[in-house]
UniProtKB/TrEMBL annotation:
PANTHER family reported in the protein's UniProt record: PEPTIDYL-LYSINE N-ACETYLTRANSFERASE YJAB (PTHR43800)
Family matches, as InterPro entries: Acyl_CoA_acyltransferase (IPR016181), GNAT_dom (IPR000182)
Record CDD domains: NAT_SF (cd04301)
Swiss-Prot/TrEMBL keywords: Acyltransferase, Transferase
A Pfam family this chain is assigned to: Acetyltransf_10
Protein name, as recorded: Putative acetyltransferase
GO molecular function: acyltransferase activity, transferring groups other than amino-acyl groups
Domain of life of the native organism: Bacteria
Domain N-acetyltransferase: 5-147
């Protein structure tokens, strides 16, 4: 059985389970964000979870372990529960998205070197940089393309 599946029912329970993964993953990897930043981003994450065209999850039996959101050919979100990081879940989600959704692009916080290295390992290369994130905050973004 494939552990990756499309999430079609984005009800409140599912949204909050994915938000929990996002929050714990962000606290583990986005060390430049404050608790205020995380609280301010949470409603935007819920909105993204509910509206992103392609939302895929990696599960073991009935628990979400990670998820990826794709719009057009771009990864908009990829988060894995820190308790299972390093087990290839993120790689499987990205590989699946490349193969089935023709993903070519991803944006990464410049202050998150683990994510940059992860995407570089999968074949993405930086082609541009923005000084601020989508919310206008001074968190530089690296724009990456699959080479």
């Amino acid at each position: 059985m494939n552990p990756i599946h499309r999430i079609t029912d984005r009800n409140e329970e599912v949204s909050h389970q994915l938000l929990y993964i996002w929050e714990t993953a962000v606290r583990a990897t986005h060390l430049f964000l404050t608790e205020q930043n995380i609280a301010a981003l949470s409603p935007l994450v819920i909105q993204g979870i509910r509206q992103i065209p392609h939302l895929l999850a990696y599960t073991d039996s009935d628990h979400y372990l990670g998820f990826i959101g794709v719009q057009d050919t771009k990864i908009e979100m990829l988060f894995v529960n820190p308790a299972v990081r390093g087990r290839g879940i993120g790689k499987q989600l990205v590989t699946y998205a490349i193969q089935t959704l023709n993903v070519l692009y991803v944006d990464v916080n410049e202050q998150n070197p683990q994510a940059i290295g992860f995407y570089e390992h999968l074949g993405f290369r930086v082609f541009d940089r923005s000084e601020r994130d989508e919310q206008g905050q001074p968190f530089p973004i690296l724009h990456m393309k699959l080479s």
